[in-house]
Design goal:
The complex is a heterodimer of chains A (172) and B (313). Chain A is mostly helical. Chain A contains 6 helices and no strands. Chain B is built from 6 helices and 12 strands. Classes of the chains: A mainly alpha (172), B alpha+beta (313). Chain A binds chain B through residues 12, 15-17, 19-21, 24, 47-49, 52, 56, 60-61, 63-65, 67, 69-72, 74-75, 78-79, 82, 85-86, 117, 121, and chain B through 11-13, 15-16, 19-20, 22-27, 29-32, 34, 36-37, 40-41, 44, 47-48, 51-52, 55, 58-59.
């Protein structure tokens, strides 16, 4: 119960930070995706279900805060959370670079999915330029930020949640 | 039973399917304003308010902190720029004041030149460009028609005489120079003498010499040029400060010059002076007397008599 409450608080805070404060560290309009990092973190640490629900909550925040239709971010993050959760069951290393690579792959996948859905909704847009101009940059930025976020969330969980890493997943 | 077990074993996939299906339904509907979205938006708006306020507060604090340095540097640069502008403005104001003073002096000289019916002279306006040992260097020379022994004067009175003329400049021997001698007379009663410079930097008071011991000279009398040599008649030299008798037939008077040669910027060099006849005798006297009886008390000009002749009892 305590762990679930902490998870909820963490995701909500991350979503609020994503929709408010992250503009302050945007570089040329490119912001890191903090919610995506949390989705990957919880997918690695707690399994794909926790990753998917993180994606639901965070994605809903992003959809509602932005101009997207409800479900746009959600479906992307849910799919990423599921994929990362399934993938990490096969990871046998906890090297930080691997986690960064996982985050990079997840961010790229999330960006591609988001752009694809956006293109389906409005075919007049140019998805290639959007990917080149925004998705790639945001992917790198998110990957670079992920070790810091992983460390912070891990420390918070250790201090407040007294959580022990699940034996099935790699401990971030 | 098998289905339930199968679902339980594939729980994550089922959850994924449900969530994706719900999201796709929402996306397919294409509605941005649903009751779910509106509720979430309201909740997020309330929840994000403290974050937004905190962010704004942090931004303001950061702006204030950086402003302490940025504004200080800006204020410092602004202060320097204003100081430069102030200096330039002060220079312009000083120039303007100098121009105004020069304008006033030139106007006074012009007025003096125009309002001198008793003189007919062709003045050359010159500018003092230097001063050395009681001599003034002026910016006019032979090229401009300046000759030696021209009278240097201002509207206040006599300044001195030209003694050294170069091609483009000249030197004026001032009243205070020891070698300066000017034929003078008391304006009130035409008593004559010679004004000599003291030659001292300490005292700029001149001496009027060769005054007959019987002549009436009083403190406060105006001393003017007698027009005997190079100076036009009647130009003010100064005022008698004191009269002292020597152990001879002559007495002397201390004269305070009217013009201060060392506080001049411009002066006149009189090229040609013609003294009207009535000035020789005095205008008031010549008007009062008939032509036959218009005898001037002044000595005939030039007074070529020897000192013995002039002062013999």
């Amino acid at each position: 119960m305590r762990k679930n409450a902490l998870w909820l608080i963490l995701v909500v805070i991350a979503a609020l930070i994503q929709t408010t404060w992250l503009k302050a560290i945007a570089i040329r309009g490119v912001e890191p995706n903090l919610i995506l990092v949390l989705v990957v973190y919880f997918a690695i640490a707690s399994g794909e279900e926790r990753g998917m629900f993180t994606g639901v909550l965070g994605g809903a925040f992003q959809d509602v805060s932005g101009a997207s239709i409800l479900g746009h971010h959600v479906v992307c993050l849910v799919l990423v959370g599921y994929g990362v959760g399934r993938l990490t069951t096969r990871l046998i290393t906890e090297h930080p670079a691997v986690k960064v690579a996982v985050v990079f792959t997840a961010a790229l996948t999330n960006g591609l999915l988001y752009t694809f859905i956006e293109y389906v909704q409005s075919p007049g847009s140019n998805p290639i330029s959007k990917i080149l101009a925004g998705v790639i940059h945001a992917t790198f930025y998110t990957a670079l930020l992920s070790p810091v976020v992983f460390l912070l969330v891990y420390l918070v969980e250790q201090r407040l949640g007294r959580a022990k890493p699940k034996p099935r997943g790699a401990t971030p | 039973m098998n289905l339930a077990r199968h679902i339980h074993e594939s729980r994550s996939a089922v959850v994924l399917a449900i969530l994706v299906a719900l999201s796709l339904v929402s996306l397919a509907s294409g509605k941005r304003a649903t009751w779910v979205a509106d509720g979430l938006r309201a909740a997020i708006s309330v929840a994000s308010y403290p974050f937004s306020k905190a962010l704004k507060t942090v931004e303001r604090a950061a702006d204030y902190t950086t402003g302490l340095f940025v504004s200080y540097n800006g204020a410092l640069e602004g202060n320097r720029a204003l100081q430069k502008k102030l200096s330039a403005a002060m220079l312009r104001a000083a120039d303007r004041a100098e121009l105004a003073a020069e304008n006033t002096r030139l106007r006074r000289m012009l007025r003096f030149e125009r309002n001198q019916p008793k003189f007919c002279f062709e003045p050359v306006e010159v500018e003092v460009i230097g001063e050395f040992e009681r001599k003034l260097q002026v910016d006019r020379g032979k090229k401009h028609g300046v000759r030696e022994f021209m009278c240097a004067m201002t509207s206040d009175g006599v300044v001195g005489a030209v003694v050294d003329v170069q091609w483009l400049s000249s030197h004026v021997l001032t009243l205070h120079h020891a070698q300066c001698r000017i034929g003078a007379m008391i304006g009130r009663n035409r008593v004559r003498g010679i004004v000599r410079g003291s030659g001292s930097d300490v005292s700029r008071i001149c001496t009027m010499e060769y005054i007959d011991i019987n002549d009436d000279v009083r403190v406060g009398d105006i001393v003017v040029t007698s027009g005997e040599r190079i100076f036009p008649r009647g130009i003010v030299i100064g005022t008698v400060l004191s009269v002292r008798s020597s152990n001879s037939l002559l007495k002397e008077a201390d004269v305070m010059p009217a013009a201060n040669p060392y506080a001049l910027d411009e002066l006149f060099l009189v090229q040609k002076a013609e003294t009207p006849l009535d000035e020789v005798a005095g205008a008031a006297l010549s008007e009062a007397m008939t032509p036959d009886s218009a005898m001037s008390r002044a000595y005939p000009m030039p007074d070529l008599r020897s000192v013995q002749e002039r002062y013999a009892p």
